[in-house]
Design brief:
- It is a single chain.
- 49% of the residues lie in helices and 7% in strands.
- The chain is built from 14 helices and 7 strands.
- The strands form 3 sheets. Strands 5-6-7 form a 3-stranded antiparallel β-sheet, covered by helices on one side.
- Helix 6 crosses helix 7 and helix 7 runs antiparallel to helix 8.
- About 1% of the residues have low confidence.
């Protein structure tokens, strides 16, 4: 273990910051000239929408059909975003109802702690259980998140030094398939090392990030969605895709996962190679962004830049850019993030609909499968609110998700 990674185990990134009981948000929203009013109004709109819709939510939202949420009862891969969104609403409003609903929703994910059949345990447990622990101090949430991390590392392939994305551990199909999305699940492993003092979780996260960096990153900073490896030898086979246009294209949400994920693993380790990679990914995405600052679903598909939008990619990217600006000290990334958040606020909300359950519209789940084309998605709502709170209430969002750097 490197010195910087060892340091994680004794820094604030790995220690409790929560009180034994929930305290209301204490920080007044910061003023951001030119953007504060728009972003504040958007957060207020989101809270009002959640206030109206949340009491009737009967599961974990996975996407909309005719503007109404459809649900998974076990959370699918997106279950963490609904309680996470409720926590964001609580941080912004201080309303007790959101805290109560967030805890009740997160508790329904308890059976997934032992799920070894998916790489998405970070998505499931970080915005729900880790945040619950950080904001309540209740050790039940911390223990469950660590258990989920233990389930996740069982998917690690030591020959190829990667975490497999899909399929049961004993299923040979997809055994060598790695996807960019997994970069966002690594912070659960950093959390587990910080809490237990056992470096094995973070070591696996770092090895996976290095494998992703080495194989996914193209010279121009773009990335494929998928990279395949021989599961027996670990040898790289080549790029692929599921949600992008082709193995040679650049699925915009995957690129956003990479920006956010590589910046986060840099913050947890201090290893600057990850920061360099995050910057390359960000520079490509910003160069491919259309003047309206809402990403198309794939930056390199034939119809780009005149193509279907994915507002969820913009919300994820904005959070990553804000993080990247803090990590690099470069204001331009923050400025671009504010432009994206403002564009989403002005052109991608459901304000004009009387029946919409979600906050954000114009999201695309899986264009090649014709699955969810310009609908609403739960992670768009979550990351839009996270991004806005990163701007207006950075101390409060730090309490929830830990913005510290080793």
């Amino acid at each position: 273990m490197s010195v910087s990674r060892r340091a994680l185990l004794t820094t604030a990134a790995g220690t409790a910051v929560a009180a034994t009981s929930i305290a209301p948000p204490a920080q007044a929203a910061q003023k951001v000239p030119g953007h504060a009013a728009t972003l504040g109004e958007t957060a207020d709109y989101a809270v009002a929408k959640l206030r109206a819709v949340a009491p009737g939510v009967s599961g974990f939202p996975v996407g909309t059909k005719f503007e109404k949420w459809t649900y998974s009862q076990n959370g699918d891969w997106v279950g963490g975003f609904w309680p996470g969104t409720l926590w964001m609403a609580w941080l912004h409003s201080g309303e007790e109802r959101f805290r109560t609903l967030a805890l009740a929703s997160a508790e329904k994910l308890a059976p997934r702690q032992n799920d070894t059949g998916t790489h998405d345990l970070g998505f499931l447990f970080y915005p729900s259980w880790v945040t619950a622990w950080r904001l309540t101090g209740d050790d039940t949430w911390r223990t469950g998140a660590i258990r989920a991390a233990s389930s996740l590392i069982r998917r690690y392939n030591p020959q190829g030094r990667f975490i497999r994305a899909w399929g049961a551990l004993n299923d040979p199909a997809n055994a060598g398939r790695v996807i960019m999305d997994t970069m966002m699940n690594l912070d659960l492993l950093a959390f587990a090392s910080g809490q237990t003092g056992d470096g094995k979780y973070l070591d696996i996260a770092v090895e996976h990030a290095r494998t992703t960096q080495r194989n996914f990153l193209r010279p121009n900073g773009s990335t494929p969605h998928v990279y395949d490896f021989d599961p027996a030898s670990g040898a790289p086979l080549g790029p692929g895709t599921v949600q992008g246009y082709s193995p040679a294209s650049c699925w915009s949400r995957g690129q956003a996962w990479g920006i956010y994920g590589f910046t986060t693993i840099y913050r947890r380790t201090g290893e600057r190679e990850f920061l360099t990679t995050a910057r390359k990914l960000a520079d490509f995405a910003l160069g491919a962004l259309t003047p309206d600052h809402v990403p198309v679903w794939d930056y390199l598909a034939p119809q780009a830049p005149h193509d279907i939008k994915d507002a969820s990619a913009g919300a994820v990217m904005a959070c990553g850019l804000l993080d990247l600006s803090r990590a690099t000290g470069e204001p331009r990334y923050r400025e671009e993030a504010l432009k994206v958040l403002t564009a989403l606020s002005e052109t991608c909300l459901t304000r004009k609909s009387t029946r919409a359950d979600a906050v954000v519209a114009r999201c695309t789940r899986n264009r090649p499968s014709e699955d969810g084309i310009e609908i609403s998605l739960p992670y768009a709502d979550y990351y839009l609110l996270e991004g806005i709170l990163r701007v207006l209430r950075p101390d409060d969002i730090d309490r929830a998700i830990d913005l510290s750097t080793v």
